[in-house]
Write a structure and sequence with these properties.
By secondary structure, the protein is an alpha+beta fold. The protein contains 3 helices and 5 strands. It has a 5-stranded mixed beta sheet with strand order 1-2-3-4-5, sandwiched between helices. The radius of gyration is 14 Å and the shape is globular. The relative contact order is 0.18.
């Protein structure tokens, strides 16, 4: 897949996941937020909890999950720390990291709170 096609496929996947979170009552705070440690695909909020969302797309949910490395999870965690450091409650902010998996049919499977799973 070329870089341009991959970029647009990523945007499309993020749009689908964003719509799902909004449908479930979340507010999207940021898309492709970039901090010192790296980028977070989506940042949402619901009922005072900030959710950092990594979006992975592949032919199947299992293949999408396989694309998530420990290194990426560590980067997401550091980026999330950076993000909440700018919020009024700072480290006292209730937050979690979700992974949203998309298959080639556009079906979404959300793995909530992956850092505590």
């Amino acid at each position: 897949m070329s870089g341009t096609v991959s970029y647009h496929a990523g945007l499309s996947a993020e749009d689908q996941v964003s719509r799902r979170y909004v449908r479930d009552g979340h507010t999207i705070l940021s898309r492709r937020w970039r901090g010192k440690a790296g980028e977070i695909d989506l940042v949402a909020e619901k009922d005072g909890t900030v959710i950092f969302i990594e979006v992975k797309k592949s032919r199947s949910h299992a293949r999408a999950a396989e694309r998530l490395s420990q290194r990426q999870l560590h980067r997401i965690y550091r980026s999330a720390e950076d993000f909440i450091g700018h919020l009024p409650a700072g480290a006292n902010t209730d937050c979690r990291v979700d992974v949203a998996l998309l298959d080639h049919h556009g079906e979404i499977d959300i793995l909530p709170n992956v850092l505590c799973a």
